């Protein structure tokens, strides 16, 4: 079994239909937590298409992913788990952004891996924890502002330990983990619900092939730098990537939906 990290590079939309509300095309969400996630079947299909594009032998693709639709049914040797939310970016007043995680998101990730550091835990929803050298406090004030909320800030060595752990085992030194910020589980749940970016898009008139000005729809996305943990269990040496970008999700033709899958380093 291999625990991997899925890193979003450009806005990612993986939806499960439409709904009546402010956002016409929301992202897929877990029912119990309402956190965004990437279905394992969706990830498997994207990796299969990428393997074909990279010229992997058809036999190797069949062994890893299973039979093609026109062939007799056979299972692939690899199982793909859902991408479970680990961290998501949020705007701040004092820095470019904070990469928010919570005790629960870290704990769900830590259950799948050995030697994970202790989990940093804010005292209450009023507090956030950051690592050494990263400061969200507004100059001349005592508050750290993230999106539309104010927090009290505390430096915690366990945040640095988690940043180092994720760098060494998956992401490397160029990752944005210096922005790692731990918030209360309830704040993280609010961020996962209310702070995802949305875009308003125009529908295309099928008859003319041009924009229909009277038909607008809103699309919800996972922002760049979002991190999700996923499991690959079984034979996956034929999957030609670790740290290589590939397309996943909708609206690929506009540059959206590019992600990187980082395998755990030996």
Topology:
Layout: E1 2-8, E2 37-38, H1 40-53, H2 58-65, E3 78-80, E4 83-91, E5 97-101, H3 103-110, E6 127-130, E7 144-146, E8 149-155, H4 157-171, E9 180-183, H5 185-194, E10 198-204, E11 211-220, E12 227-234, E13 245-247, E14 258-262
Parallel strand pairs: 5-9, 6-8
Antiparallel strand pairs: 1-12, 1-14, 2-4, 3-12, 4-5, 4-12, 6-9, 7-8, 10-11, 13-14
List keywords for this structure.
single chain; alpha+beta; 12-stranded mixed sheet; two-stranded antiparallel sheet; 5 helices
Structure in words:
With 266 residues, the chain is of the alpha+beta class. It has one domain. Helices cover 21% and strands 29% of the residues. It has five helices and 14 strands. It has helices at residues 40-53, 58-65, 103-110, 157-171, 185-194; strands at residues 2-8, 37-38, 78-80, 83-91, 97-101, 127-130, 144-146, 149-155, 180-183, 198-204, 211-220, 227-234, 245-247, 258-262. The strands form two sheets. Strands 1, 2, 3, 4, 5, 6, 7, 8, 9, 12, 13 and 14 form a twelve-stranded mixed beta sheet that branches.
Structural class of the helix and strand makeup? alpha+beta
Radius of gyration, rounded? 20 Å
**How many structural units, i.e. domains?**
1
How many strands appear in the DSSP assignment? 14
* Percent helix: 10-25%
Distance N to C terminus = 13 Å
Largest sheet: 12 strands, mixed
**Fraction in beta strands:** 25-35%
Stretches with pLDDT under 50, minimum 5 residues: none
Shape: globular
- Overall mean confidence score, pLDDT: 86
Separate helix tally: 5
Order of helices and strands: EEHHEEEHEEEHEHEEEEE
């Amino acid at each position: 079994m291999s625990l991997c990290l899925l890193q979003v590079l450009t806005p990612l939309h993986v939806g499960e239909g439409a709904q009546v509300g402010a956002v016409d095309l929301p992202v897929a969400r877990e029912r119990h937590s309402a956190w965004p996630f990437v279905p394992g079947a969706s990830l498997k299909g994207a990796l299969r298409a990428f393997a074909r594009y990279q010229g992997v032998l058809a036999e190797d693709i069949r062994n890893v992913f299973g039979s093609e639709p026109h062939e007799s049914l056979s299972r692939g040797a690899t199982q793909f788990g859902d991408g479970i939310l680990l961290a998501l970016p949020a705007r701040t007043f004092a820095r470019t952004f904070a990469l928010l995680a919570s005790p629960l998101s870290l704990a769900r990730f830590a259950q799948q891996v050995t030697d994970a550091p202790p989990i940093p835990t804010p005292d209450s929803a009023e507090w956030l924890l950051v690592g050494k050298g990263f400061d969200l406090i507004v100059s001349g004030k005592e508050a750290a502002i993230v999106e539309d909320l104010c927090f009290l800030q505390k430096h915690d060595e366990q945040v640095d330990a988690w940043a180092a752990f994720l760098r060494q085992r998956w992401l490397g030194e160029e990752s944005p983990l210096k922005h790692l910020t731990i918030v209360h589980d309830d704040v993280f749940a609010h961020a996962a619900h209310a702070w995802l970016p949305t875009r308003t898009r125009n529908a295309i008139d099928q008859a003319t092939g041009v924009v229909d000005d009277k038909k607008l729809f809103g699309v919800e996305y996972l922002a760049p730098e979002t991190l999700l943990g996923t499991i690959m269990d079984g034979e996956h040496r034929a999957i030609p990537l670790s740290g290589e970008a590939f397309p996943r999700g909708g609206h690929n033709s506009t540059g959206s939906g590019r992600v990187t899958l980082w395998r755990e380093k030996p």
